[in-house]
Structures are given as C-alpha cells and as structure tokens.
Amino acid sequence: MSAAMDIHTRLAQRRDVLRLLGLLSASSLGAAALPLFAQEPKLPKLVTVSGAITEVVYLLGAEGQLVGTDTTSLYPAAARATPKVGYMRQLSAEGLLSLKPDAIIATNESGPSVVLDQVRSAGVKVEIIEADHSWAEVQRKVQAVGRAAAREAQARALQARLDAEWGQVQQRVAAFKGRKPRVLFVLSHSASPQVSGEKTAAHSVIGFAGGVNALGGFQGYRPMTAEAMASAAPDVILTSTQSIEAHGGVDKFWQRPELALTPAFKKRSLITQDALLLLGFGPRTPASIADLHEKFVAAVA
Asked: What's the whole-model pTM score?
C-alpha cells in the first residue's frame, strides 16, 4: 500500500512539474511574440513649403518624415534631393496630394489659397504660419513643426537654444553706440532690379542688425531708379549672393549706372548673404544678424 502511495505521489509531483513547465513556456512565448505584433507609433508624413520650415525639420531630426518640400528648400544640402512640390506661391493640389502627406506646413505667403483649401478638404492637416518678419515668426515655425512632426519636446529644446542665441545677438547690437549705417537692399535676381521699402523681410533684417533702411515712405518693393538711388544715399548696399550671380559677378553688379550715384559706390561697400539665410527667418537668423551687424559696424568705422 505504501509503495502504491509512493508511486501515486511521484506521478502527482511529475504532473505538477510538467504543468509548471508548460506555464513558463507559454509565458516566455507570449513575451517573445509581443514585439512581433506591437507596432511603433506612426510618425506623420510631412510636406514643408518654406526653406526655413524645412531647416527646422532637419534640426529636429524629423527629415525621415519628409515626403516633399518646395523649391526654396535648399538647406541643408540633403533637402535639395527631396521630392519638390514647386514654388511656394504656385502650388497645385494634385502635386501635394500625390505625396500622401499627413500634414503640410507653410506660411501665409504660400498659395494659391484655393489649393490649400482643396488639400484641407481632402483630409490633410494644413498648418499656416504667419510671416511677419519678426523673431516670433521663427518661434512659430519651430512650434508648428514640433506639433506636426510629433516632436514637441525636441522643439521646446531647440527654441530655448535659439532664443538664447537671439538674445545675445540683440544685446550686442544694442550695445553699439556708433552711427547707424544707411543700408539699401537690392533684389536683383532678374534684369529689373528692385529696392526694398518697409514691411519687407529686408527692412526688418536691416533694423535687427543695427542699420537704417535707406528707403522709406512706401511698402514692399519698387524698381531701382537713378532718382531713388540719389535720394536714398546709402552707406551700404545689401543684396543676396543669388543677385550677384545673376549679374555675372560683383564687377558687373557695380556697373549698373544707378549705383554710381550712391556713397556706397565710392567705397564699393557691398554686403551679400545667401537669400534663404538673409531673408528666410529661420533657425539660422541669429547667425545671419550677427554677421550683418559686424559688417555694418565696419562700414561706418
């Protein structure tokens, strides 16, 4: 009897061990199988319509989410290889929707507005940032990209760094007590050069860098005429590197007869920057303004 009970006990113990091994095996299989079925959160696919907005995407490490950019998106160099949706003011709904984005980030300078309305109607989120040529515009771009790309924490960190850089540059500009140079911005990407008045990106940039726009009394751009040059009397001519290239070089640029009427011509006082860096109001704006301020100071030294 005791032998039979001993056998029964051992069989029961064996069943308990097998049951335990089965439970452990099932638990291990479930844990191993879980990652096979758990999916990473889907990150939004983006189209950016503004070179400055595209720069922010790269700084936030979200370039893998870009499915398209506009033709002003040339920095960093990798942005040039992204699918292009055309010029920011000449967008098409078909071109935008063909890339199947989850969100489009643009400024109020983009359009036509009817195209953006069509894209919204198709269920794509469209985020429009007001472009008013202020530091707040840069902040809005960083915040908008952070929201659209689901990278808000990274956006806050980037904004804090950029705000610190901007504050340092503006303190440096404010500390300068010398004469502010009269600066004339020339937009000359075509055969008909224009000069910048008020309510323009160039006007704001000149002021932020410690200069005075040599032309006022009108908003936007006007053709560059001999009369305008004579009355403006700029100490410095400011233009983009693209304008110089369009003229065939610095020497060709100075050959324009209108410029010969200015004090800047006598000193050949010319400052150039890449158009996106100079007028884009993006994350490189603090560096752009710091560079311009140093050159403005040198121009009136």
From this structure: 0.85
